[in-house]
Amino acid sequence: MNVYDFDGTIYDGDCTVDFYFYCLRKHPIIIYYIVRQAKGFILYGAKKIDKTRLKEYFFSFLNGLSDTNLLVLSFWQKYDVKIRQWYIQNKNNDDIIISASPEFLLMPLKESLNIKDIIATKIDIQNGHIEGTNCFGEEKILRFMKKYPSQTIDRFFSDSNCDLPLAKKAKKAYKVGKEKISIWNLAK
Hints:
Blueprint lengths: L1 E3 L10 H12 L7 H12 L5 H8 L9 H12 L5 H6 L5 E7 H11 L3 E5 L16 H10 L7 E4 L5 H6 L2 E5 L4 E3 L5
Parallel strand pairs: 1-2, 1-4, 2-3, 4-5
Antiparallel strand pairs: 5-6
Helix pairs in contact: 1-4, 2-3, 4-6
């Protein structure tokens, strides 16, 4: 079983940011949520809230949308080109994507990429509230082990050192750069 981080790894960029600006172009009214979003960034910067709460502030813009599921589908019709070709050429049906990005945003890719599963941050598509914790760092290991307790990760791919805990669980780990994939030196 191969496990992949998503943003910056198999997706060229950050799909959350791309989706936000896509929604903003389609529904400019959500700009009114910027005050709430800015408050979240200030509180996070002052270490008053964690990343999970920051994401709730950010995703408050979902309150201003009525057709989020349709927006997600139309987003992927345009942005699926940002899924890197090296992944498309090497993917397997038993691949798992594990990401801090919202589950509602990534889930359509399960079918279109024909992969086994997606584990991601569970965000209520209606109001932006997070169920549980942001799927980031150590939380990725917890989520993977809960869902696949007896599975071994053969190969893990990520662009981020934040995924070091999950990389250490894999038989082989790879660091993904913009132009190159290399064996992840886990001894550092």
